[in-house]
Design goal:
Rossmann fold; 15% strand; 4 helices; globular; alpha/beta
Amino acid sequence: MSLGLACCAVEVEAAIEDGLLIDEEPDAPAARTAVLLVAGTVTTPLAPLVDRAVAEAGPAVSVMAFGACASTGGPYWDSPTVVNGVAAVLADVTVHTYVPGCPPRPDALCTALAEMGSA
């Protein structure tokens, strides 16, 4: 699942369009992990929606903060309407993976997902 909130969502879409997120062996059985990818700036009005999306994803969800804004507020950290990272809005769930960059490259997303899958 992806919450594309700002420009980092374009990099996520680029990874999808380039085929970087498609299994090479679609028929091979594999363990799947529910990942909620938060890409972009989390603003105060969006914070409850992000928290609700995590709650609806279930207890086994892994949260990934993709990009500087989702991780720490990015260059907008001092804005009164920007939350300083998605971890600040999550009530009972921690962020499992942080992908740095502004914006991170699509291959950074693939690497982070692979590392989450092998952990």
